[in-house]
Specification:
- The structure holds two protein chains of two kinds.
- Chain A is an all-alpha fold.
- Helices cover 76% and strands 0% of the residues of chain A.
- In chain A, helix 1 packs across helix 14 (274-304).
- Chain B has 13 helices and 13 strands.
- In chain B, strands 1, 2, 3, 4, 5 and 6 form a six-stranded mixed sheet that branches. In chain B, strands 10-11-12-13 form a four-stranded mixed sheet, with helices on both faces. In chain B, strands 7-8-9 form a three-stranded antiparallel sheet.
- In chain B, a hairpin with a 2-residue loop joins strand 7 (203-211) and strand 8.
- The longest helix of chain B is centred in the C-terminal third of the chain and has 29 residues, at 311-339.
- The chains are: A mainly alpha, B alpha/beta.
- The interface between A and B is medium-sized, with 24 and 22 residues.
C-alpha cells in the first residue's frame, strides 16, 4: 500500500507543538502531589526553574543535533561514544521512553478505574488505551503529527477551560508565603519537575526533519515558546491546586488535581461532577503523548536494527509495554520507578548529552587541526 | 476464502464487544440515591439492623435517607424519601451490609448532607467519623456536615412541607448563610472540614436542631482540632462571621438611643474586612479593620423621634452600630479564644503563617498555648447610605 503520510519535513512551529504535547501528557494529574509535598508553597517557583533547566537541556540537544543535521541520535551516538558506548546511549534513550510509557499507563489505569469505571479492571482500561495508542503509533509520522496538532487545539483548550473552573474555589491566601524560606529545597525541587517536562528528548529524533529548513537560533526560540507554554500550564496546575486545597491537604491526596475539580460546584447549572469532564478531556491528552512516545520507541528500534518500517517493531513492543505496565502493581513500586526514571532522565539530559556535545566539538576541532 | 472467514469472525466478535454496552453501566432506576446520612450512637440495637462483626462493637447507628424514584402521581402527599439504618462500627461495613435491606445498589454521588449526633462526637474524634466519606470516590467535597445535640435520624426523617427531598432541603438550609449571621456555613462542608483537619486547624460546623417537627440551623459546634468541645450560640457565630468577613449581608440591631426599649436595625450591604497579623519586637497582635456600608432596615419606636432624615442622628446611629459590632466581635473572641481556646477554622494561624512566615516558624509548636494570649484590636466604621423606602 502506498504510504501517503511519510513525513520528510516539518516546521519549527510543528516541532514546538510536538514538544509541548509530548511533555504535557499524564503528569498534570500524576505529579503535583510529590512536588507540593516536597517544596510546599514554593512549588510554583520550582516549576518555573524546572522549565528553565529543561529548556537548557533541550538547547544542548538542539546544539548536538545541529552537528549532525541529517541524522538522529541513533546514527551519531555510536560515532561519538563508540559501538558499545553508543549502543548503551541508544538503549538508555529508548528506556527513558519505555519507563515513561509504562508509568503513564499504570497511572491512567489507576485513575480511570477509581474515578470513572470502578467495575472495570485496570488491566482492561490499560489494554483498551494501549490498542488505541498502538493504532495511532502504527501510522506514519505525518498522521501522528496531524493528530497532535488537532488535539493541541481541541483537547488542551477544553482541558484548560475545565481546569480554570477551579478558580471559583481559589483562596489567594493559601499561596502565601509566596517566597518560601527554604530556597535550597525549592531549587532541588525544580529537578523533580522532570516528571512534568520529560518528553523533550524527542527532539533528538525529530531534528533531521527540521534542520534543513530552520536555523538553530529560530529553532531555539520556537522551542523556547513551547517551554514557556509548558511552564504556564504547569504553574497553573500547581498554583490552583495549592490555592484551592492548601499545601497540607494537597500532600495527603494521591491525585490532588482531581479533588480540586471535584470541589467545584457550578450553581444553577446541570453540570455536576466536573472531575469526569476533566478526565474525559485528559484522556486524549494522554493518548497523544503515549502514541507519540510509542512511535519514538519503535522508530529508535527501527533505525538501530536498520529496518525500513517501524510497524512490526511497534507490534513487538506492545506486549512488552503491557507487561511492564501490569508489573507495577502498587503505588510504592510506581514511586520507586518514577524516581529511577527521573534520575535516568536527568543524567541523560545533563550528563550524556553535554558529554556528547563536548566530544563532538573536541573531535571536530581535532579534525580541523589535523587538516592544518 | 479461509482468510475472509477469519476476518469476518474477528469483525463479528469486534462488533459484539463494541455494541454490548458499557462495562460499568448502571441504569438510573437500578440505583438507590442516598441524599442524607445520619450518624447516631447505637443505643438500642434492633436485631434486623445489625450483623455479626468479627471486630469492633456496635458503636454507631448509621441511617441513610434514600430518594424514592416513583412517578409524581404515585407519591401525592407521601414523603419523597425513606430511611434505612444499620448498626456497627465501620461506616463502610455498615453501608455494605445495608444492601441486605435494599433491592438496588446504594449510590452516594448525590449525597447532600451528613448529620452527626454530638453523643457520637463526645466519644470519637471527627476525623474518625469522616474518614470513610473523605476516602470514598463517590462522595462530593461540597457535602454539608452538621452536628446536632439530639438524635440525627429524626432530622433526616423530617419531611419538608415544600415537598423537596429531605436531603436537598437540609443542604439548602445552609446555602443562605451569606445573609444569615446565625449560621456558620462558610468553609464548613466536607471538603473544607477535611482541609482544616489536614492543616491541624480547629473546626467549627453548623449546628442543626429539630424540635416539634421544626428543623433549624443556628449556632455552631466547636472542635479543638477534631475533638468536639461544645457549642457556641448565634451571637458568637455572628461575631465570628463579622470578624473574619465571611458574611455578605447582615442584620445588626441596637437599642434606640432616643427611644430606649425599641430597636433600630442596620442592614449590611457591603463590607471591607481585613484581619492582619502584626509582629513588633517579638510580640504578636492582630488588628481587624472593618468598614461597613448599609441601610436602615427597621426602626421600632416613634419615627418622629428617631428621625432617619436627620444627618446628625444618623452619625449617632453609625457610631452605635459600630460599637455593637465591636461588642459582638469581642464577645466572640471571649467565647472562642479565651474560654474555648479555639482558633476558628485556623484563620489566625493561617494569617500569621501567610504574612509572617518567619514568626510562624518560631511559634507554630506553641501556637495552641500562645493563641489565647494574643491581643486582637478591632476597629469598625459604619456608613449608613440609605434609610430604606420610608422616613
Amino acid at each position: 500500500m502506498a504510504n501517503l503520510e511519510v513525513k520528510k519535513h516539518m516546521s519549527a512551529g510543528q516541532l514546538a507543538i510536538v514538544v509541548f504535547v509530548t511533555c504535557i501528557g499524564a503528569q498534570i494529574m500524576l505529579t503535583p502531589r510529590g512536588l507540593i509535598a516536597e517544596v510546599k508553597n514554593g512549588a510554583w517557583i520550582s516549576v518555573l526553574l524546572g522549565g528553565m533547566f529543561f529548556y537548557t537541556a533541550t538547547y544542548f540537544m538542539l546544539r548536538l543535533g545541529k552537528q549532525y543535521p541529517d541524522e538522529t541520535i541513533v546514527e551519531y551516538a555510536p560515532r561519538i561514544f563508540g559501538r558499545i558506548g553508543g549502543g548503551i546511549v541508544i538503549f538508555w534513550f529508548n528506556l527513558l521512553f519505555y519507563m515513561q510509557v509504562i508509568t503513564i499507563f499504570y497511572g491512567v489505569g489507576r485513575i480511570i478505574t477509581f474515578y470513572m469505571f470502578d467495575r472495570t479492571p485496570p488491566e482492561v482500561v490499560v489494554l483498551a488505551l494501549l490498542v488505541v495508542c498502538t493504532y495511532c503509533a502504527l501510522q506514519d509520522w505525518g498522521t501522528i503529527l496531524r493528530i497532535q496538532q488537532f488535539l493541541f487545539v481541541i483537547a488542551y483548550s477544553i482541558l484548560i477551560l475545565v481546569w480554570l473552573t477551579s478558580i471559583l474555589n481559589f483562596q489567594p491566601e493559601n499561596m502565601l508565603p509566596l517566597w518560601p524560606l527554604d530556597i535550597k529545597g525549592v531549587t532541588l525541587g525544580s529537578f523533580t519537575t522532570w516528571g512534568m517536562y520529560s518528553g523533550y528528548e524527542c527532539v533528538l529524533l525529530l531534528l533531521p526533519l527540521v534542520y534543513r529548513k530552520v536555523s538553530l537560533a529560530k529553532l531555539a526560540k520556537t522551542v523556547g515558546v513551547a517551554f514557556v507554554g509548558l511552564s504556564i500550564v504547569f504553574m497553573l496546575i500547581i498554583v490552583l491546586t495549592i490555592g484551592v486545597l492548601t499545601v497540607e491537604d494537597a500532600k495527603n491526596l494521591p491525585f490532588p488535581s482531581l479533588i480540586v475539580i471535584r470541589s467545584v460546584e457550578l450553581p444553577g447549572t446541570f453540570l455536576e461532577r466536573l472531575e469526569n469532564y476533566l478526565l474525559v478531556t485528559w484522556i486524549p491528552v494522554v493518548f497523544d503523548t503515549l502514541a507519540a512516545m510509542m512511535f519514538f520507541m519503535a522508530e529508535v528500534c527501527m533505525r538501530q536494527w536498520r529496518h525500513a518500517d517501524h510497524r512490526p517493531i511497534l507490534l513487538m513492543l506492545v506486549p512488552i509495554i503491557y507487561i511492564g505496565a501490569m508489573l507495577i502493581d502498587t503505588p510504592q513500586v510506581n514511586e520507586i520507578l518514577g524516581k529511577f526514571t527521573m534520575w535516568l532522565g536527568l543524567s541523560f539530559s545533563f550528563g550524556v548529552v553535554p558529554t556528547a556535545l563536548l566530544l563532538t566539538w573536541w573531535k571536530k576541532s581535532k579534525v580541523g587541526k589535523d587538516c592544518g | 476464502m479461509a482468510k475472509k472467514k477469519w476476518i469476518a469472525c474477528v469483525l463479528i466478535l469486534f462488533v459484539c464487544i463494541m455494541i454490548s454496552g458499557c462495562w460499568d453501566m448502571r441504569e438510573l432506576q437500578d440505583r438507590n440515591f442516598v441524599l442524607a446520612v445520619a450518624i447516631d450512637k447505637a443505643d438500642d440495637v434492633k436485631e434486623v439492623e445489625t450483623f455479626v462483626q468479627p471486630h469492633g462493637s456496635k458503636r454507631y447507628r448509621v441511617s441513610l435517607q434514600i430518594l424514592k424514584l416513583a412517578a409524581g402521581a404515585e407519591q401525592k402527599d407521601e414523603s419523597r424519601t425513606f430511611i434505612k439504618s444499620n448498626t456497627g462500627e465501620s461506616m463502610f461495613e455498615m453501608i455494605r451490609d445495608m444492601l441486605g435491606q435494599s433491592s438496588k445498589s446504594l449510590w452516594f454521588e448525590h449525597l447532600q448532607v451528613l448529620i452527626i449526633s454530638d453523643a457520637v462526637l463526645k466519644e470519637v474524634d471527627l476525623g474518625e467519623i469522616l474518614d470513610f466519606f473523605k476516602r470514598d470516590s463517590e462522595m462530593r467535597s461540597r457535602i454539608k456536615v452538621y452536628v446536632t445535640s439530639g438524635k440525627a435520624r429524626p432530622i433526616i426523617e423530617f419531611s419538608p412541607p415544600s415537598k423537596e427531598p429531605g436531603g436537598v432541603f437540609l443542604a439548602n438550609l445552609s446555602r443562605l448563610h451569606l445573609k444569615n449571621l446565625h449560621v456558620t456555613a462558610s468553609r464548613t462542608d466536607l471538603g473544607y472540614t477535611v482541609q482544616h483537619l489536614d492543616n491541624k486547624s480547629d473546626v467549627i460546623l453548623p449546628r442543626i436542631e429539630m424540635v416539634d417537627k421544626v428543623v433549624k440551623l443556628g449556632g455552631s459546634a466547636v472542635f479543638k482540632k477534631d475533638r468536639f468541645i461544645g457549642y457556641v450560640d448565634e451571637y458568637a457565630v455572628a461575631g465570628s462571621k463579622m470578624m473574619l468577613g465571611t458574611e455578605k449581608s447582615a442584620v445588626v440591631t441596637i437599642d434606640s438611643p432616643k427611644t430606649p426599649g425599641h430597636q433600630i436595625v442596620f442592614e449590611l450591604f457591603r463590607h471591607d474586612t481585613t484581619l492582619t497579623p502584626h509582629v513588633e519586637n517579638g510580640s504578636i497582635y492582630f488588628t481587624d479593620d472593618i468598614t461597613m456600608y448599609g441601610n436602615i432596615g427597621e426602626i421600632q419606636g416613634d419615627i418622629n423621634v428617631n428621625d432617619a432624615m436627620d444627618p446628625e442622628y444618623l452619625r449617632i446611629l453609625e457610631v452605635a452600630f459600630a460599637e455593637e459590632i465591636k461588642r459582638n466581635i469581642y464577645y466572640t473572641e471571649k467565647v472562642l479564644k479565651k474560654e474555648m481556646k479555639v482558633d476558628a477554622v485556623g484563620r489566625f494561624a493561617s494569617k500569621l503563617k501567610a504574612h509572617e512566615p518567619e514568626t510562624w516558624e518560631q511559634v507554630k509548636d506553641q501556637w495552641d498555648e500562645l493563641y489565647p494570649t494574643i491581643p486582637l484590636y478591632v476597629s469598625v466604621n459604619v456608613t449608613i447610605r440609605n434609610i430604606g423606602s420610608h422616613k
